[in-house]
Specification:
single chain, globular, alpha/beta, about 20% strand, 10-stranded mixed sheet, 3-stranded antiparallel sheet
Length: about 475
């Protein structure tokens, strides 16, 4: 019996397997408004530049193109095999960087650059290297040893020898999509990817000097069951990536057209999904990985595990990261920025993003200012997601509040979770128990003032399990 199934009974499972945000931000993107546009973004940058201690910068570049659709995918992507589309996209990306970079003081260094998608390696290795060079020309990059230049890779569409070009361009981290190695599961989700392909890219990344390699898996896909998933886990553990992300599949076909290709009758039920998650936790921790929280694991000497141990872990739209106190600049279609106490998002449709840049406008179509309450709750949820605890005493001092009074409603909502053994309420902190660490989202939802009552939550969010 898996760890997860020993921690939960069916009744508990039914109560907590409800839709809710993943809290890569707070407030979450549905709260963004079109009242926030380019002028508001400029104001946010100006205010951020005026901070007594300038924050470093993190850059995110969204590459939306994919050669083949994966039926589970909920990302913002464009299916095409026309590689000629790359150059037009990169030309506008350069225009966007040229518009936003001068707004930031030159003493603010870039400590992190991440390419996500879509499929970033839809771009050729040479194009990726040129894009890094272009961004270096626009922004001041840090030379510090902890600087990250990372990329998401699809091993099906890149040759091992191409990885050397990425290493020479400065990439030092890579994340490889795998999801599952079982042939039946791969056929169902339209992603046929061999163990040999994947192992070859991991080896090439190591030979290119990359200091950290992540592998993504998904549990809850069609035809998955504990025996087949165990084989996938065993295969991946043998490859010894530095990090793993094990995501729960979110079946939202009303939002993501590709998911309508899946036969929902073959999806595992909630109890099976929980067993798969517990299986991953057991196998990976037994193999020496540290359970970071939510869906991430890392080897003990990886920077992610070290950051959690020293309190420097952070969670944002790129997942867990070690660069806690930085402003995030999103470039490309649908990308989200988090500058100071603001969020802003680029158009989710390619024509809208292109039209803004063709008119030399910052491509912002929605966003929001965070008020003091937003900042307090964001701080609280950030700590919960990264450290599995809420630092009651520290938050009281930092925001000059009486925690019990300020969060009276939230604490009432938290009581059933406390009774079910998900949290332990102490004098100066609230701690997620081992059972609660599997349901950090549910704990965070108690403190989310924007969340609708349970019976009214629209299915725009994935389920907790």
């Amino acid at each position: 019996m898996s760890l997860a199934t020993t921690l939960f009974d069916p009744g508990l499972l039914r109560r907590y397997d409800r839709p809710g945000p993943r809290y890569t931000s707070y407030p979450t993107a549905p709260q963004f408004s079109d009242a926030f546009g380019p002028e508001q973004l400029r104001e946010a940058v100006t205010a951020s530049n005026g901070d007594p201690i300038p924050r470093p910068l993190s850059l995110y570049v969204h590459v939306p193109f994919c050669e083949s659709p994966c039926f589970y995918c909920g990302c913002n992507r464009i299916i095409t095999r026309d590689k000629q589309r790359s150059q037009a996209y990169l030309s506008r990306l350069e225009r966007e960087a040229a518009l936003i970079a001068p707004l930031f003081d030159r003493d603010r260094e870039v400590v992190q650059l991440h390419f996500g998608g879509g499929t970033p390696n839809f771009l050729s290795p040479a194009q990726l290297a040129e894009t890094v060079d272009m961004l270096r020309a626009c922004f001041r990059f840090s030379d510090a040893a902890h600087r990250d230049i990372s990329i998401e890779l699809d091993p099906r569409f890149i040759a091992p020898e191409a990885i050397a070009v990425l290493g020479e361009a400065g990439f030092n981290r890579a994340s490889l999509g795998v999801q599952d190695f079982d042939p039946q599961v791969q056929a169902a989700v339209n992603r046929i990817q061999s163990v040999e392909q994947t192992a070859a890219i991991i080896q090439a990344c190591r030979e290119a000097g990359m200091r950290s390699i992540n592998v993504d898996l998904i549990y809850g896909l069609p035809h998955q069951h504990p025996e087949s998933f165990d084989r996938t886990l065993e295969t991946v553990i043998a490859m010894r990536p530095d990090r793993l992300a094990v995501y729960g599949y979110a079946h939202l076909p009303h939002l993501f057209k590709a998911q309508r290709q899946l036969d929902a009758s073959h999806l595992p039920g909630g109890e099976t999904k929980l067993a798969l998650l517990g299986q991953a936790i057991e196998r990976l921790t037994a193999a020496g990985y540290v359970y970071i929280g939510m869906d991430h694991f890392a080897l003990p000497d990886d920077e992610l595990a070290l950051a959690q141990a020293n309190g420097g872990l952070h969670r944002n739209f790129m997942g867990y990261t070690t660069h806690a106190d930085s402003d995030l600049i999103g470039l490309g279609v649908s990308a989200i920025s988090h500058i100071g106490n603001s969020f802003s998002q680029n158009p989710r449709d390619l024509p809208g993003w292109e039209a803004a840049l063709d008119e030399d406008r910052l491509p912002v179509f929605r966003g929001m200012w965070m008020d003091e309450d937003d900042q307090l709750r964001a701080d609280l949820i950030q700590s919960l997601m990264c450290q599995a605890q809420i630092p009651v005493g520290a938050l009281q001092r930092r925001y000059s509040i009486d925690f019990q009074d300020y969060f009276a409603d939230a604490l009432r909502q938290l009581q059933p979770l406390q009774q079910d053994g998900l949290v332990r309420v102490e004098d100066q902190r609230i701690v997620a128990t081992p059972r609660g660490r599997l349901l950090l989202r549910n704990i965070a939802m108690c403190f989310d003032r924007y969340l609708e009552p349970q019976e009214e939550i629209t299915p725009r969010y994935s389920r907790a399990i």
